[in-house]
Design goal:
This protein has 10 helices and 15 strands. By secondary structure, the protein is an alpha/beta fold.
């Protein structure tokens, strides 16, 4: 059985045109049965519930595409003649046209798996295969129990730092045929690594219900990120919505943002910002699961408009916008200085407590 984090064969890591026969590990003389056998073996090995590494996910997708082509006689014949590029993009036919260009891999790898096995559960697929062999050869191997799946709520802070989550589940145990069915509490630990992806599946083999003649199936815990009060996650990035009043949006401000590791970022906003405009702070997002640093903090600005203005406020705002940006006349300059002195007067001004914001 493959282990978590297993390394994919180097032949699957190429970025050149795919050789579908090579992806499945068969030669060009392979029969339909050979192709089905090869896909069956690889799909059960690299299914996400059996191996959740990134390499396995890539292999699982590539073998699905290879089987999709080689199991179809028309696509297989075109590939044999023109290769992957000709199959997908076409090649010149020498008469001003093109031949090929008839295929795009649009199905999901899991859909191919389910179409092949009749289920998207690899353990159930193994049980179906096992049952078929037992009917033919009379094997006495026990059948495999059903997989049980649970959600695993994880906070954004736990994903940021990494966490060991203690979980429990109750399984049913029948120790002898016809005997009493007991409930057994099982304690497990899920090691959630920093940067863990939402939806990641942690599989514990043989932790399911148990009875004579039936191998316990797997228990699977699926990461479900708990909604955060401040940040939203987008891949390896964190998204923060900053609500600015009109004055701060036009005149600038400094945002104070507390990070998931309890630091306070002081982010200067010096340019005029529009609603839904963004500012990116590099390296202040989530840790990347592969350990290659961190994503970014994406700040999205939301402008909060006042509900109403008095006639005097409207006139002053309008006057401010029409004030000459360059080379005001002496009279205009004097008027603006007098206005600002009155507004910012220490005891009678109306901007007390707000000056400099």
């Amino acid at each position: 059985e493959p282990k978590f984090g297993s390394v994919a064969p180097a032949r699957h890591c190429a970025v050149d045109a795919m050789d579908y026969y090579e992806e499945l590990g068969v030669n060009r003389a392979a029969t339909d049965i050979d192709i089905r056998k090869a896909y069956r073996k690889l799909a059960l090995t690299y299914h996400p519930d059996k191996d959740d590494s990134e390499d396995a996910a890539m292999i699982f997708e590539r073998i699905a595409e290879a089987y999709d082509v080689l199991s179809n006689r028309k696509l297989k014949a075109t590939f044999d003649l023109l290769g992957e590029i000709g199959l997908k993009d076409g090649v010149p036919d020498g008469r001003g046209g093109r031949k090929g260009g008839i295929y795009t891999f649009e199905a999901s790898p899991m859909a191919i798996f389910k179409q092949f096995f009749g289920t998207d559960n690899p353990y159930e697929a193994l049980m179906v295969i096992q049952d078929a062999f037992e009917k033919i050869g009379g094997s006495g191997k026990p059948e495999l129990g059903a997989q049980r799946t649970y959600d695993l709520p994880v906070t954004l802070e736990e994903i940021f730092h990494g966490a060991h989550k203690a979980v429990t589940h109750t399984r049913k145990v029948q120790r002898e045929a016809g005997g009493a069915i007991e409930s057994e509490d099982r304690s497990l630990t899920v090691a959630v690594p920093p940067g863990c992806k939402n939806g990641r599946r942690f599989v514990f083999e043989r932790e399911g219900n148990s009875k004579p003649g039936v191998e316990p199936g797997a228990v699977v815990f699926v990461v479900e990120t708990v909604r955060h009060d401040v940040f939203a996650r987008s891949g390896d990035d964190l998204v923060y919505v900053a609500k600015l009043g009109v004055v701060d949006a036009l005149c600038g401000t400094t945002l104070k943002i507390q990070t998931l590791d309890k630091r306070t970022l002081a982010i200067p906003v010096v340019e005029c910002v529009d609603a839904n405009s963004q500012k990116i702070v590099g390296g202040e997002g989530m840790p990347r699961a592969d350990g290659s640093g961190r994503g970014d903090l994406i700040i999205i600005f939301e402008i909060v408009m006042p509900n109403k203005l008095t006639p005097a406020q409207k006139s002053l705002v309008r006057a401010g916008f029409f004030y000459p940006g360059k080379q005001p006349s002496p009279e205009q300059h004097a008027a603006s200085v007098a206005f600002l002195n009155a507004a910012n007067h220490g005891s009678k001004g109306w901007t007390i407590g707000f000056a400099g914001k």
